[in-house]
Each structure stands twice: as C-alpha cells, then as structure tokens.
Records
---
Amino acid sequence: MAIGIFLGQSLVFLSSYQTEYWGFFFLYGIGFGINNGIAYVIPISNCWKYFPNNKGLIGGLIVSGVGMGTFIFNLVST
C-alpha cells in the first residue's frame, strides 16, 4: 500500500511540471488511473478472503469509503 501511495504522489508531482498536454495526459490520466486500480485491488482481495460470503457488501463498503473520504477531505481542504 505504501508503494502505491508513493507512486501516486510521484505521478501527481511529475505531472504538475508537464508543459505539454500529452505528457500530462499520460502521467496523470493513465498513470494515476492505473495506480488507483492497483491500489484498490489489494484491500478488496484481502477483505474477500476474510468475508467470502459477503463479497459484494465488502467491495461496496470499500469503494464507498474511499468516495466518502474524498468527499469529506475535499471539503476540509478547500
């Protein structure tokens, strides 16, 4: 998880220095999207192992928790 966080922050930092559209597109759009996809797989697969009968509930709670965290901390930071 720490590797995913470090990689995500590095991609955002590097994309802030891009002066061309395609460099920003690849670093932020594609790179950060792939990183988020990888970062979601780890907690969801671990929770599916512990709760094999409630995979949909666990997946929904994780995704909604990430969304609510983004919503709340976006309001806090602005």
Note: The mean pLDDT is 85.
---
Amino acid sequence: MSVRKRVRSVAARLLTEPPPTRFTGDYASWEEARAASGGYDEQAILEKVTQAALKVKNGEAVFERDSVLFDSIQYSWPVLAGLLWVASRSGNSLNVLDFGGSLATAYNQNRRFLQHLGTLRWNVIEQEPFVRTGRELFETEQVRFYESIGACTADTDPNVALVSASLAYVPQPYVVLEEIRSQSFAYLIFDRNFFSPDRDRLTVQTVPPWIYDASYPAWFLDEQRFLAVVEAEYERVAEFEGLERSVALAAGTGRSKGFIFERRSDAP
C-alpha cells in the first residue's frame, strides 16, 4: 500500500472510530498513576514520530501529529489566528516558544500562513532524545530545539509561548505553568489542555496500539485554578474548544480547551 493510501486509511479510521484514547482512574499522585500505567517504549515512540516527520519533510505526506500521518493539514484555526494576531501586534515578528512541541509539528502545521512574516522563529522545548533528533534532522534557521525553557530564553527572546497538548503530561503542571508565567512573555496560547469539571484529576491515558502501544499519567486540571494562576498577570483574550472537545472520565466529563492571553500592562 502506498504512503498516501495508508494516510487516507488512518485518516478515515480517525473519523469513523471512537475517540482514539481512553482516560481511566483518579489517582492521588504521579507515582501512583505511573505504577498503574503500562508505560511506554520511549525509543520506539521517538522512532515512529521521527519516521512520520521525515515523510512530511520529504514531501511523502502532508501532516503528522503524534506519529499519525494525514493527507491534509488538520488546522487549529484559533491557534493560527492567535499566532497571526501576535505577529500583527509585534511588528510583523513571531518568535514562538513551543513547549512540548515534538519535532516541530505545530510549525509544520502553520508555516504556510507564517512564512510571509518579517521575522519567524520557532523554538521547541522537548525531552532530550527529541531535542537530539530534532537538532540532527529538523533544525533550520527558523526552527530550533531546546531541553528547557531557560535554555531557550537565554538564547532568544520569544514574544509568545505556545502550550499545546503538553501540560497534562508533566508531573507538576502548576510548577511548569508558574515557570512560563514568570518569563513574562507578551502573549500565551494554550491549546488542547484537559480540564476536569470540579478539581484536578490525575488519570491514566491509554493509546490504542495502532498509533503506538503506550499508557501514561495524564492530568485534567481544575479550570478555575489554572485561570487563577495565569490571570494573575494576563488578560484572557479568547477561549475555544480543543480538538478532543469532551472526554469521558470515571466521574463526569472532561473538556479539551484552549485560551489566548495577553500580558497586562500593570503586571509586575
């Protein structure tokens, strides 16, 4: 089967099958959730993501997300609108800190609409194996890879932080959120963040084997607590539904949401 036929097959499956992941449990700690998950082969996942990203780079596929190939780009239009809005308010310049950005998925997703900008730089913050692969195979003048927020901001001065589908997968999401806020970026864009209806909930996410065989802890954050942290220094400009929309939990229904924030002029 050709690459394009396989891509169409996977895309059709995504449209016709139930949601591709399951979230179960309500755990008291990250360690407890890790013990209840099956874990994952980090190297195998990295290799699968790398091969998919290389197909996009080489023109064999149009778009990749989480190692799944698509024959058309799956846009998050609110995120793209937010990025262009930031650029329009920043002298036609966009310097993005992309926290948890894999191998620059979001850059490849949106670059057609961003290449006209006077200045465009995309800085991916990822785990060390992804950074090593990114630097070896995907780094360009516009796309750079870093192992930490601090390493990035020591090298360049981003005007917007993009946090997409990543805050749920760190042991201490509020510590990361505080670190992002402390950098005083002019704008923040959050996409595909999971929220619980009443409080912080720690679940185990199970990925179907046809994507890759893995399960790991995943946070559903208390939306009001999240907003209280960010809005201490930022004004909410917009909010929108994320790709997953609603997610079934052991108790209630979680939501996938996004937000765009602008730093307040009176912020310390």
Note: The chain has one domain: 3-263.
---
Amino acid sequence: MRSPFERSTWTHVDDQGDAISEQYWREVGPGWLRKDSPNINEAVDRLLDARRPRAAFFAVHFALADLETSRLKRLLQEIGTCDAEQAGTYLMDGYHLSEGFDILQKRTGVSEEEMARLEFLFIRVLEHESHGISNLEKQLGKSPALFVQVLGLLYRRHDGGEDPPEWKVANAEKASELATAAYRILANFRRIPGTDDNGNIDEDALRTWIKEAQVLCAQNGRPEIGDQKIGEIISSPTVGKDGIWPREEVRKVLEECGTAQLAKGFQIGVYNSRGVHARGEGGDQERALAEKFRTWARQLAFEYPYTASVVDGIAQSYDRDAAWEDSETAVRRRLSH
C-alpha cells in the first residue's frame, strides 16, 4: 500500500487478480493527484466503484477542473448519498466542495434541475460558501409544488389529513435529516419568485407563484405556515424605483394576496435580515428604523393600504424595541452606581 498512487501501481495490482485488486481499492490511502495528472478520471472511477467517494474527492480536490463532467457529477452525487465509508475519514472542506459545484455549473450538459438536486444534498455546507444554493432557489421559485413539498418535510398538517405518499419517509433518522435540510432551505430561500438573473421581477410570475402556493398549502393542511414562509421569502430589502419599500412588484402583489399570516412572515423576514449589528446604549437605532418604515407606510397608504399597514406594523415593532432598549439602559445605569 506504500507504492506510488499512480497507474503503474494500479496495473501491477490488477495483474495479481480480482481479489487483490478489490482489496487494494478498498484499503488504499490515495495521495493527491496534480492538475496535469493523466490518472485523475481513472482514480475517481476506481474509488467510486469501491464505494469510497470521499477518498476520491480527497485524491482530486486540487484537480477538479480536469475531472470529466459525468465523473464530477457522479462524484458529488455519491459523496452526498453513499454511507459506506467510515465516519470521520477523508473529511472535506467547504471551500473545495463549493469550487466543485462552481466548476460543474459552468459545464455544458448539466441542467439547473441536476444542480438543484446536488445542492439539496449539501445545503448545510453550501449555505456558508460562495456557491450557495442558487439553483435550488431558482427551482423553488419556479415550482410552488416543490416549495410546498419542502414545507411538508418540516411542518405537520393542521387538518388531520394525509400527505401524498411520495412525501412520506418511513425511516425516522432519514425523516429527521430531511427536516433539517428543509429548515435550511427555507432559511436560505430569499430569491423572490419571478426574479431573473439581472434582479428584475416578473410581477405576473410572482403573483401566479404565490396564488398557486397558497392553494397547495391549503390543500395540504398548511395554510398558515405557508403564508408565513411566503411572507419571509418576499421580504427583500430592495426598494422600488421610487425609493419606497417594498419594491413596486411586491407591493402590488401583496395587495391581492396578502393575509394576516403573510404579513407576520413578512415582518419576521425584515427582522431576520437585520442580522447581527453593533449598537450603543438606548433605543436610538430602533427609533431611526421605526421612522424610516413609518415614512414608507405614509407614502404607501393611499395606493397600497394593505402593504402600508404591514409596513406600519414593522414601525410599531421597532417603537416597542426602542422603548425596551431605553428601559434596559436605564436599569444598567442604576445598577452601575
């Protein structure tokens, strides 16, 4: 097993018979192959046939650009689905995995649907890497049915009905894994349906997607959580061409499709988008935010009354946050004296 990890060794092993060859590929510790190595594709084939996809990735992670397309696709698929390798061996870093996805996405003959399925397998890694889950987001934004199925992996029905058979997962451990993946997908799904690659939104496509998603959520016993998640998805911080938030396409569709639960989700999306932030004492930051949203609400009130009420609700929440921060600051000051 200490012979060089190259074709001359593999040929010699093959000459010893099938049993020795199979043992070699089950046990060999592969070395790194260089970008100019002529053995890259063969090494991947052999290790994948031995059900060692992580070992294969380790061997070629510096030469992924030289790996043939079908093999790169198979490699990523089997890393995400094969459980034959011992836990803790050949751990992969997210950077090179993300790089592999970037390389594959640029190849001809690889569809958006294929990329989306692969992204689903690695969402817990890709959500923190540059590649992200762009194809999965696009697929969700095109298919309300896929969105509702993902929702169904995480949230139970509230009407006592039965989900479609293809949604059911008998294995409890697998069901838990899928629920975790569904949570991460919904947490990272921030591409507004109907959005093209230039950031433009097709208002009709957005309206159709939301209405179809609402119908499917109701049919599958999840109307309230469905509206909440839809609200979170469309709460993008992008302002309209007139400088008012939310942008024109979103506010127009909100007037038609808005519900109390959708408004709740919309507000949650706004709070979550604020993220971690530095702050001083008191609630001045929250008061400034409240005034910003209240100004937008006033500007929207005549033409978009529902949207204005949602935006004003955000302003009121920041008013409450400001009062709480003032109170906390006052308490800390008293305790420090």
Note: The chain is about 65% helix and 0% strand.
